[in-house]
């Protein structure tokens, strides 16, 4: 079977080729201009932040030597040559690591519950009162703007040392962060189920319960699992101010230059975070698969 290929006249083809070359050249000029602006902005930021590349290069050896000390036992030799000496305090560290995990879990669960209750009040498509939305959104902004470490310091002063300040700090910060994410999910739902409940005489709570919640639960759970991973790392850090968990022992080891203890606790934290990441990733994928199968 014969195929007929249409060819353009030479002048028309040359005009199209010239237009294409001009468009490519304009695109390249735009990219070059954007890259130049980026470099200038980066240079201004480096100068403004007093970042000294020369000092960075001269002090780089201190950074690498610190890691070398982390991998050296107090008695000499590498840490992996004597695992029993390296992890001499593993029973205590595992208990503190479990406490850190519980702080992260309770803080995430409590924060997710607050965010769940607040997100519907902050959504434009479900609440018509601009004043109510404004108040709820500003409260959520305040909670996620204040660092969890600052919250932990305040609660340590108020309630003393222990896990409670850590749980409260992670709860408030998680509520602010998840509240924003949950609100964005709610504002993107299909409003037809909500309007159907409203048309049948359902109250506002019924509209939320039967029209909105079934559409957002899987996304809420996915965001909450992601926040749990972040909070586990955060729970280890807020222990620096006495808010429970393994962070306090880690800070003491850093201050007293117990390098092998620092490396051992870091290994435990990294392994725990990796396991948590893998478990939560599997759960998130299952939730997304269930949502896609509906």
Please explain how this structure is put together.
The structure is a single chain. The chain has 294 residues and is mostly helical. The chain is built from 11 helices and no strands. The chain has helices at residues 10-48, 53-70, 83-86, 90-119, 130-145, 148-159, 163-187, 192-199, 204-238, 247-255, 259-292. The longest helix is centred in the first third of the chain and has 39 residues, at 10-48. The radius of gyration is 28 Å and the shape is extended. It starts with 9 loop residues before the first helix and ends with a helix.
- Outline type: extended
Residues in helices, as a percent range: over 70%
Which percent range describes the beta-strand content? under 5%
What's the architecture of the largest domain in CATH terms?
Orthogonal Bundle
End-to-end CA span: 47 Å
Short précis:
The protein is mostly helical and 294 residues long.
Ordered list of secondary-structure elements with their pairings:
Elements (H helix, E strand, L loop, with lengths): L9 H39 L4 H18 L12 H4 L3 H30 L10 H16 L2 H12 L3 H25 L4 H8 L4 H35 L8 H9 L3 H34 L2
């Amino acid at each position: 079977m014969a195929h007929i290929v249409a060819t353009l006249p030479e002048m028309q083809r040359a005009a199209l080729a010239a237009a294409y070359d001009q468009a490519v050249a304009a695109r390249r000029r735009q990219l070059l201009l954007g890259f130049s602006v980026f470099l200038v902005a980066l240079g201004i930021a480096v100068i403004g932040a007093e970042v000294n590349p020369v000092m960075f290069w001269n002090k780089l050896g201190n950074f690498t030597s610190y890691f070398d000390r982390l991998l050296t036992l107090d008695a000499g030799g590498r840490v992996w040559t004597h695992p029993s000496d390296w992890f001499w305090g593993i029973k205590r560290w595992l208990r503190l690591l479990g406490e850190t995990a519980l702080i992260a879990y309770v803080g995430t669960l409590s924060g997710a519950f607050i965010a769940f209750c607040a997100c519907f009040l902050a959504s434009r498509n479900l609440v018509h009162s601009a004043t109510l939305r404004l108040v709820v959104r500003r409260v959520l902004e305040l909670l996620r703007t204040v660092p969890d470490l600052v919250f932990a310091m305040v609660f340590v002063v108020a309630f003393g040392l222990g896990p409670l300040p850590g749980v409260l700090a992670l709860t408030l910060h998680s509520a602010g962060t998840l509240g924003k994410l949950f609100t964005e999910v709610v504002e993107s739902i299909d409003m037809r189920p909500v309007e159907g409940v409203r048309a049948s005489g359902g109250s506002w709570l019924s509209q939320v319960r039967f029209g909105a919640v079934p559409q957002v639960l899987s996304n809420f759970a996915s965001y909450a699992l992601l926040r749990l991973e972040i909070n586990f790392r955060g729970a280890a850090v807020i222990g620096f101010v006495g808010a429970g968990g393994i962070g306090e022992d880690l800070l003491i080891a850093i201050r007293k230059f117990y390098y092998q203890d620092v490396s051992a606790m870091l290994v435990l934290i990294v392994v725990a975070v990796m396991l948590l990441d893998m478990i939560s990733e599997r759960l998130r994928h299952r939730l997304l698969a269930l949502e896609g199968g509906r």
